[in-house]
Amino acid sequence: KGGDGWRPYFSGGVGWVQANVQSDDLLFDESTTEFAFDLGGGVMAYFNHYGVRGDIRYYQTVSGDDIDALGVDLGSDINYWRATVGFTFRW
After folding, report:
1. Looking at the chain, which terminus has fewer C-beta neighbours within 10 angstroms, N or C?
2. How far apart are CA 30 and CA 70, in angstroms?
3. Pairwise CA distance, residues 68 & 55, whole Å
């Protein structure tokens, strides 16, 4: 059937990330909103009406203010990786 097989893709974007740091006993509650970008890619594979999708993305803030909670500098650089896997179907 047409359309079966592998479909690689690239993804990227820019926007804002909001971080909130809060202690369990509510002694501090700090938040910040930072400009950020993400880059990643993945692949979708279809077999008739069913498929599998997987991707990995990297998120990074560009600049920002430090979060200071009770004198502890928690920094301003937010970066992390995220990987996902999913099952898809089409009709």
Report:
1. C
2. 10
3. 34
